[in-house]
Amino acid sequence: EAWSAAGRPAAGASYLAGLRQAAHNLDETAVRMLAGVEAVLGGRRRRFQTEYALSIADGSWFELSAEGLKRAQGGAVITHTEITSRKKAELDKSSGSRQTVKSGTL
């Protein structure tokens, strides 16, 4: 229930169909994800990774990873890993670096 409330496809729904629909709606993240996943499935890339914010409001970040399978039928393993803590640390560090440069103490 929480899964579909967050905008994720229902169990049994086509993952690619969901990405295609979001990309059709001009969701930049979905366009990037779809292109990467299709490149892996089409054999043009062995692996694809990208980071994305689930929603700006709650600050959750995830990393999508698609790894092509080495089998005649093709396919891929696709994972979404929660990386919010790491991303917040990176953003905090980056923000601190900009402050240092602005204040002229670098």
Overview of this protein structure:
With 106 residues, this protein is an alpha+beta fold. The chain has helices at 2-5, 15-24, 28-41, 84-103; strands at residues 47-55, 60-68, 76-82. A three-stranded antiparallel beta sheet has the order 1-2-3, with helices on both faces. Helix 2 packs across helix 3 (28-41). It is globular. The N and C termini lie far apart (49 Å).
Overall 3D form: globular
Spatially, the strands of the biggest sheet line up as: 1-2-3
How much helix, percentage-wise, in residues? 40-55%
The Rg value, from CA coordinates, equals 17 Å
Mean pLDDT: 84
Order of helices and strands: HHHEEEH
- Helix count from the secondary structure assignment: 4
Low-confidence stretches: none
| Distance between the first and last residues' Cα | 49 Å
How many DSSP-defined strands?
A: 3
Strand proportion: 15-25%
The assigned structural class equals alpha+beta
Q: Main beta sheet: strand number and arrangement?
A: 3 strands, antiparallel
Please outline what is shown here.
With 106 residues, this protein is α+β, with helices and mostly antiparallel strands. The chain contains four helices and three strands. A hairpin with a 4-residue loop joins β1 (47-55) and β2.
